[in-house]
C-alpha cells in the first residue's frame, strides 16, 4: 500500500495520541496499521504495536521527552512505507488551583485541582518563627496524597510557627516516579490560580453582568 497521510498528534505528560488518514492508494484492503516508537535520542529497538483503527494512544511515556513515532499500513500483500514524526510529551504542569484553609492552631486543609493521570500529589510546608523582626526557617515537612484526591488534611503543626505551603504533581511511569515543579509557597488563606482560569472567570463574570443589564 501507499503511505498513510496527515499524521497528527496530541500529547500529555505520559502519553501521545496519534491520528492519521489511510493511504490514498491502498492497493488492496488495509488489514492493520503497524506503529513503532522509541525515544528520539535512542539507537535501540523500537517498541512495535498495531491497530485496525486510524488512531492510537501510546501510554507509559516519560514526561518532557521527544519520541520518534512511525505508522505504516498493511494489506494482504505486505506493508507500505513508514511515515515517521518527531513528537514530544509535555512537561509535568504546575497545579492550576491550590489553597490552604486553617482549621485550628495545629491543622490545615489543603485543596487543589484534579490532574488526570497523576499518581500522587505532594504538599510541602516550611515554617518561619512567628516573630516579625527575625524570620528564619525552623521546620520543613511534606504530606503525600493519592492521585484521585483533591484535598488532604495536614495536622501536627506547631501553633507558634507560621507556615508556607506548596504542591507538586507526580506521575508513575513503569514503576519510576517523575515529579513536577512545586508551586510558589503560600500561607493559609491564600489561593494559587492560573492566569487562564482567572481570565475565564473574569470573562464569565463580565458576560453574565452584561446579560443581566441587557435583560433588565
Automatic annotation (TrEMBL):
Residues 1-93 form the Fibronectin type-III domain. InterPro entries: FN3_dom, FN3_sf, Ig-like_fold, RTP_Phos/Ushers. The keyword Membrane applies. Keywords: Membrane, Transmembrane, Transmembrane helix. It comes from the Eukaryota. GO terms for cellular component: membrane. The chain crosses the membrane at residues 197-214. The keyword Protein biosynthesis does not apply. PANTHER family: CYTOKINE RECEPTOR (PTHR46957). This is Fibronectin type-III domain-containing protein. It comes from Amphimedon queenslandica.
Amino acid at each position: 500500500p501507499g503511505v498513510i497521510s496527515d499524521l497528527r498528534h496530541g500529547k500529555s505528560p505520559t502519553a501521545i495520541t496519534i491520528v492519521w488518514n489511510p493511504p490514498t492508494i491502498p492497493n488492496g484492503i488495509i488489514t492493520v496499521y503497524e506503529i513503532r516508537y522509541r525515544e528520539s535520542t535512542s539507537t535501540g529497538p523500537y517498541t512495535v504495536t498495531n491497530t485496525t483503527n486510524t488512531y492510537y494512544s501510546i501510554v507509559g511515556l516519560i514526561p518532557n521527552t521527544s519520541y520518534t513515532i512511525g505508522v505504516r499500513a498493511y494489506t494482504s500483500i505486505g506493508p507500505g512505507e513508514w511515515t515517521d514524526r518527531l513528537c514530544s510529551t509535555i512537561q509535568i504542569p504546575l497545579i492550576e488551583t491550590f489553597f490552604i484553609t486553617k482549621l485550628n492552631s495545629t491543622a490545615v486543609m489543603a485543596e487543589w485541582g484534579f490532574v488526570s493521570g497523576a499518581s500522587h500529589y505532594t504538599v510541602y510546608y516550611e515554617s518561619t518563627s512567628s516573630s516579625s523582626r527575625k524570620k528564619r526557617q525552623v521546620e520543613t515537612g511534606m504530606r503525600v496524597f493519592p492521585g484521585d484526591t483533591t484535598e488532604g488534611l495536614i495536622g501536627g503543626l506547631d501553633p507558634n510557627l507560621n507556615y508556607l505551603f506548596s504542591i507538586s504533581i507526580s506521575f508513575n511511569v513503569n514503576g519510576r516516579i517523575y515529579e513536577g515543579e512545586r508551586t510558589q509557597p503560600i500561607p493559609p488563606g491564600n489561593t494559587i490560580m492560573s492566569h487562564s482560569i482567572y481570565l475565564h472567570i473574569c470573562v464569565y463574570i463580565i458576560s453574565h453582568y452584561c446579560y443581566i443589564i441587557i435583560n433588565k
